[in-house]
Structure formats: C-alpha cells, structure tokens
Predict the structure.
Amino acid sequence: MSKKLFQIRSRLIHTLRAKNQHSLHSPFVFAWYNKVVLNQDNWQPSNRPEAMRQRFLSDSSVDQGEDSGTRAAGNTRTISQVAKRALGPKHKLELLYRIIRLQEPRSILELGTCLGVSAAYLAEGANAKVTTVEGNSYLSELAANELRQHGYNNVDCINSRFDDIISRESDKLHLPWFIYLDGNHHYDATLKYFNIFIERARQDCILVLDDIYWSKGMAKAWKEIVSDRRVPISIDLFHLGVLIFRFNQPKQHFRLRA
Ligand SMILES: C[S@@+](CC[C@H](N)C(=O)[O-])C[C@H]1O[C@@H](n2cnc3c(N)ncnc32)[C@H](O)[C@@H]1O
C-alpha cells in the first residue's frame, strides 16, 4: 500500500472510531478535551504566528540549507514552498497552544523548528523558555530572525541534528516540561527519542508526537508507545499523539475527534 493510501485509510478508521466528550468517563480527560479541543474558554493566540507564516509564504528565495532527509536528491525549493508543505496548519498549532496554556509547563522543547511558526505558537501558550532544534542551518537562521522580529525573546533556536543534542537538551529542562517532536518521522528514530524522553518524564510532563499516521513505521511506533506500561494517558487526535504523564491515573488510551 502506498504512503498516501495508508494515510487515507488511517484517516477513515480514525473518523469511524474516534469519540467525543460525551463518551469520556475520565473527569481529567473530559476537562482536557473541553478546554483543548473544544476551546470552551475561547483561548486565542495573537496573530503574530500567522503573520510569520504569511511572510514566509511570499518569500521566493531558495532554501540554501542542508537536507534533513526529507527532500528528493538534487531538488531545490523556495522558502515559500517550504512554508506551504512543511509548516503545521493553523488548526493543529492552535491545539498545541491550548495544550500548553492548560498545562503551564516550565520548559518547552521542540524538535523540528523549520521556519519557527510552531515555535511561535508554543511561546504564545506559556511564560516558559522555548528551545527549538533544526538541522537545516538556513531555515534555523530564518526562523531565529523572524521570531526575534516578532518579539519572541524567550525562544532559543538551535541549529543541530536531533541526535547530537537530544540528551543534553532534555537534561536541561525544568519540570513539568512539554516536548513536541515534529521531525524525523521514522520508526527507529521515534522510538529512540521516546525512550530518551520517558526516562526523564515526571508528574504532569507532556510529550506530543506529530503525524502519528504519516507512514506505517510511524503508526507502528505510536502503537508500541501507547502500549508501553510507563505511559499513563495517551490521546490519539490523528494528527497529534499526546502523552500525558499523570502517574496517579490508571493507564488509559483515548482516540478522540479533533
Ligand atoms: C515538519 S517540519 C517542522 C514544522 C514546524 N514544527 C512547524 O509546524 O512550524 C520538520 C523539520 O525537522 C527538520 N528535521 C528533520 N529531521 C531532522 C533531524 N534528524 N535533525 C534535525 N532536524 C531535522 C527538517 O529539516 C524540518 O525543517
């Protein structure tokens, strides 16, 4: 089965099986769903992240950075194309903003800065330092400049391969942390990063995995993560997989409409 067909099939299965707030018996997840997914408190980020996106969408300069393994060999691409294809959609990034706003983490780590639009949403959600990592030096620098120009002084853009800094940066995080993994969507890498984070997970930390049905490998990794005994609460929102480390709750998995 092609990757596209796998994604369509996964989407269909999710639509058929996902539940909404009416079937939630866990008071914690019921409240979480109402605030994060249904946005019952009408939390709105500023328009700065979307202004950044618009700026990049009209940037026709060529991406001069290194490839992180997602580009076809020899292909050149403009920043506008990167902005169109790689940035998370507004709806998804607003979910992240509300997860953070509810959680109030003391540190935020993002793997996969790209042009910094998601980092801006993460910074909007909490009064905490955001560290964001990108392997492509050109994109990392563009993101850092744009974030600075929009007044995001609490975002630290690091240009590095994930593997080179992940343990070091994870050790620097204050509890409870929020980690967003949005790059290197492969089975081995996802499980490797998950195992590094889970060792450091404590009460009320949150780990969000992006694009859990992007490929068969990602879906397999997500299935294994969900069944891991060390994960108390897992929430499948299709585009995002959310792990909430509330160790005083019985282990539960939820597949929810978002
Ligand atoms: C989907 S994009 C991130 C989009 C961004 N979070 C947003 O929504 O605004 C993923 C990024 O991760 C970077 N990346 C992928 N694998 C990487 C790795 N192993 N080390 C460093 N960066 C990597 C890619 O260069 C790409 O820019």
User: Anything to note?
Assistant: Residues 3-50+89-255 form a domain with the Rossmann fold fold (CATH 3.40.50.150).
